[in-house]
TrEMBL record:
Alphabetical list of InterPro entries matching this protein: Asp/Glu/hydantoin_racemase, Asp/Glu_race, Hydantoin_racemase-like, Iso_Racemase_Enz_sf
Enzyme Commission (EC) number: 5.1.99.5
Annotated Pfam families: Asp_Glu_race
SUPFAM superfamilies: Aspartate/glutamate racemase
The name this protein goes by in its record: Hydantoin racemase
Provenance organism: Rhizobium leguminosarum bv. trifolii (strain WSM2304)
High-level lineage: Bacteria, Pseudomonadati, Pseudomonadota, Alphaproteobacteria, Hyphomicrobiales
Enzyme class: isomerase
Annotated family: Belongs to the HyuE racemase family.
Any GO MF annotation of the entry: hydantoin racemase activity
Catalyzed reactions per annotation: a D-5-monosubstituted hydantoin = a L-5-monosubstituted hydantoin; D-5-benzylhydantoin = L-5-benzylhydantoin; D-5-isobutylhydantoin = L-5-isobutylhydantoin
Amino acid sequence: MRILIVNPNTTASMTEKAANAARAVAASGTEIIAATSSMGPVSIEGHYDGALAIPGLLSELKERQTAGYDAAVIACFDDTGLEAARSFADVPILGLCESAVATAGFLAQRFTVVTTLERSRVLIDNLVRRYGMGERARVRASDIPVLELEDPASGAIGKLRAEIERALAEDGAEAIVLGCAGMTDLARELQAIYGVPVIDGVSAAVKQAEALVSLGLSTSKRGSYASPLPKAFTGAMSAFSPAGKLG
């Protein structure tokens, strides 16, 4: 099977990091295809960035259709554009937050999501509650701008570890979820250090995507994820008219 990993920001190094994490866990018959959005913010930190990242995300999903993919993973822990992508696509689309908290729920009664900035903490906390894990999870911010995770000299890893240690000491966390795609390469190392499950959303989403494809299941097109109704879009959005699924 072919799984598309779409980075909805425009930083190619983050795409490669997510693709490497996906390939590390993919089954032998799974091909991982990586795509970086060609327009939008260099990182996604909050609602404004997320909104402006969605057109680029949808464009990548459309452009890759010719070559084909059996499922797609949106490589942002904010689950940027997830609902729109599920409405557009005819294959399973998975988000990192939903996949990661579902996986954590199999492994621990209490867990903590450690993310980057406070603005992202609030957004992710709302997602966790929406996904039914609000009573079992806490979300913490480690005060790390996303792009600092790309800079070994930034001190970001130290901040992340300090917040994980507070989660274990203060939250009663039995597992840790890494709340940013830029943290995906740290999961195994942190799990070895702290002795609790550390869940990376990219890896969790890839394995769940493989399961859905193997089971012959995809997103329901009845109701909320039904394909968009044909209509004209105007101005800069004219290329996104649903009449031809993004034209």
